[in-house]
Design goal:
Blueprint (H helix, E strand, L loop, with lengths): L35 H18 L8 H27 L6 H30 L2 H15 L3 H7 L17 H21 L5 H26 L6 H5 L1 H14 L2 H8 L3 H21 L8 H22 L4 H6 L2 H8 L1 H14 L2 H4 L3 H30 L5 H21 L12 H8 L2
Helix pairs in contact: 1-2, 1-14, 1-15, 2-6, 2-9, 2-12, 3-4, 3-15, 3-17, 3-18, 4-5, 5-6, 6-7, 6-9, 7-9, 9-12, 11-12, 15-17
């Protein structure tokens, strides 16, 4: 899952007083500080997804929805902070710089994962796995995987073990949101009036967009196969937009009136409500999931995130800031990228393990791959590579895409049907 940005931490050796509550009319993300509880919440989200895909936690798929809400909240908060600064300096939001930051954050790890997975499937996977990986890879790189899977009628809930990239539909949804939503914000903040009025427009459009997205889910819902509404950008946009709504000044002003103690208790109640829903959910069989259940889950998550951002030192905020959860949150993007290819390639037959023993091995290998990706790819490009900016960065990005394209062309496509038929079973059937 695409990692939402976190507000930067203060430099070492400095001390910053954190106000008890947000100033009226400002969002919590406008304060330059790192919110540890939100890192922990990311850790909870990715842990749920890991256990769901391992077959150990039927409600863990809701971690993707939680990621969507977090992304909407943090991205919108950063854009609105830039808009406020631009108003004070008679400047403007620099969309090119925003998209450049997103590319440096997300693309290197994604490209390396796609290349590595193609090589691993070629070396270790059967014919169907290799063929499906080659078929899906261009759509993954183009950030259109979700629409590709929908058009291909690749049912999400019955996804075959041959699809090493099936989890990347959610990355595509977020990338499409990152491309479109900033354009709306730029138009809305330029519409005249002061900063407060501009943010009211952003809040109104986010709320209206979320409502429209819910209507589309209700209208397009298919009782037989829910893949269209589950993976469609239009039908999942409400999660991102509700997170965006929670980052605006009108919501911040309402929550700021409650005080930290009340907000801390509200966060605990909302967190417990989400936990109950996660532990009672059962995949697409969850009652009312596509009839408003996902929307209510996203709304609860948005309120929870807003409360944690305003009052991070409440009981739930302190629990989420625990180092293990924060560590998972920091690794969440690479962990999401690598876990499903690891799960597919390390099948029960290959490992000779089942149940929690296999899950433990899968989690360990996924964590190792994620840590290597972060240390060797993500962090160097984000924090230490001066060449990753400007024209040099664009050239390096293009070169990486060309190298990946060359790899895709050079890898041999398995013959149709090769490795997909069990000859033993056919022989047994013929002898009956």
């Amino acid at each position: 899952m695409s990692a939402p940005p976190s507000p930067p931490s203060p430099p070492r050796g400095t001390h910053r007083r954190t106000p008890a509550a947000s100033p009226a009319g400002s969002s919590p993300t406008s304060r330059t500080r790192h919110i540890a509880a939100l890192d922990g919440l990311r850790g909870v989200a990715v842990l749920g997804v890991l256990l769901f895909h391992a077959g150990c936690f039927a409600g863990g798929f809701l971690g993707v929805d939680l990621f969507f809400v977090l992304s909407g909240f943090l991205i919108t908060g950063l854009l609105l902070k830039e808009a406020r600064a631009a108003r004070e300096t008679a400047g403007r939001i620099r969309l090119g710089a925003f998209w450049g930051r997103r590319a440096r954050r997300l693309s290197p790890a994604l490209i390396v994962m796609v290349a590595g997975t193609l090589l691993l499937t070629w070396a270790c996977g059967g014919g169907p796995v290799r063929r499906q990986a080659l078929k899906d890879a261009p759509w993954v790189v183009a950030n259109l995987a979700n629409w590709h899977f929908i058009a291909d009628q690749a049912g999400y809930w019955q996804a075959s073990a041959t699809q090493v990239f099936s989890h990347l539909w959610s990355i595509a949804v977020e990338e499409q949101f990152y491309l479109v939503w900033p354009l709306f914000i730029v138009l809305l903040v330029r519409g005249g009036g002061n900063s407060e009025r501009a943010e009211r427009r952003v809040a109104a459009v986010a709320a209206a967009g979320a409502a429209l997205s819910l209507v589309l889910m209700l209208v397009l819902r298919d009782p037989v196969d829910s893949t269209r509404v589950y993976e469609g950008t239009d039908t999942r946009a409400f999660s991102l937009l509700l997170g965006s709504l929670a980052a605006t000044a009108p919501v911040a002003r309402l929550l700021g009136r409650l005080g930290d103690r009340v907000l801390g208790r509200c966060a605990l109640i909302l967190g417990c409500a989400l936990a109950v829903y996660w532990f009672t959910a059962d995949g697409q069989k969850t009652p009312g999931l596509f009839q408003g259940g996902l929307f209510l889950h996203a709304l609860t998550a948005a309120l929870l995130i807003a409360c944690l951002a305003h009052a991070p030192r409440g009981p739930l905020g302190r629990a989420l800031a625990a180092p293990p959860l924060r560590g998972l949150g920091v690794l969440s993007y690479s962990l999401y990228l690598w876990h499903w290819p690891v799960y597919v390639l390390l099948s029960e037959d290959r490992l000779g393990l089942t149940g929690w023993c296999r899950t433990a091995v899968l989690l360990a290998v996924s964590l190792a791959a994620a840590w290597l990706s972060k240390v060797l790819v993500e962090d160097p490009v984000r924090f230490r590579a001066g060449w990753a900016h400007g024209r040099t960065g664009a050239a390096a990005f293009l070169a990486a895409l060309l190298a990946l394209t060359a790899l895709w062309i050079l890898l041999p496509w398995p013959e149709l049907g090769a490795g997909s038929v069990d000859l033993t079973q056919l022989t047994a059937a013929d002898s009956r």
